[in-house]
Design brief:
It contains 6 helices and 8 strands; from the N terminus they run βαβαβααβαβαβββ. The chain is of the alpha/beta class. The chain has a single domain, classed as Fe-S hydro-lyase, tartrate dehydratase beta-type, catalytic domain (fumarase), CATH 3.20.130. It has a 5-stranded mixed barrel. A hairpin with a 2-residue loop joins strand 7 and strand 8. It starts with a strand and ends in a 7-residue tail after the last strand.
Length: 172
């Protein structure tokens, strides 16, 4: 298992392969269909830094933060998957979620030296790995606001990198 700390350096992504198991340490953002399009709007307007958000070497976990804990949501929902290329271009290195992404999104990940990792939907395990959490932006969205979590060993599996995905193994 590869240990990866945030912010993530360029060379870390280049050495990952589909199927690799990783453990994340450091700060990660959370967001899903309510907030990720708002982040892309800030990127497009050139106002990301004004909002106090730095995505360089970042991780975004496709989830909400509820009193029950965190668990992955489907990354292939339109309002989530459609944001992955812009977020990757803005510096996000790892997108965490569940579900299969389109080939177009997988190619965008490759273009921007980013990866997609799946995380098992085990809320109790993930909650035990969160050291700190706070709302980073859009508090009006409640549990779907952009949160910043400090994690200690989040377990993940690389599902798409370098233009390939786990789904591609089915076609070989």
């Amino acid at each position: 298992m590869e240990i990866i700390s945030t912010p993530i350096k360029y060379d870390v992504i280049s050495r990952l392969s589909v199927g690799d198991m990783i453990a994340l340490f450091g700060y990660i953002f959370t967001g899903r269909d309510a907030v990720l399009p708002k982040i892309v709007s800030l990127i497009n307007a050139g106002k990301l830094s004004e909002a106090g958000i730095n995505l360089q070497g970042a991780v975004i976990f496709h989830t909400a933060v509820s009193p029950a804990g965190v668990g992955p949501t489907s990354s292939n929902k339109f309002d989530i998957e459609s944001t992955i290329p812009a977020l990757s271009k803005a510096g996000v290195k790892i997108h965490l979620g569940k579900g299969m992404l389109s080939q177009k999104t997988i190619e965008a990940l490759y273009e921007y030296n980013s990866v997609y990792a799946v995380i098992p939907p085990v809320t109790a395990l993930l909650e035990s790995r969160i050291i700190e959490k706070r709302v980073a932006a859009f508090p009006e969205e409640g549990m779907e606001a952009l949160h910043l979590l400090r994690v200690d060993g989040f377990p993940c599996i690389i599902a798409a990198t370098h233009g390939r995905s786990i789904g591609a193994f089915d076609k070989e």
